[in-house]
Amino acid sequence: MLEMRPDCERCGADLPASQAGAFICSFECTYCTECAEALDDRCPNCGGELMDRPARTGKALQEHPASTERRFRG
Question: Pfam families, from UniProt (predicted)?
Answer without folding.
Answer: DUF1272 (PF06906)
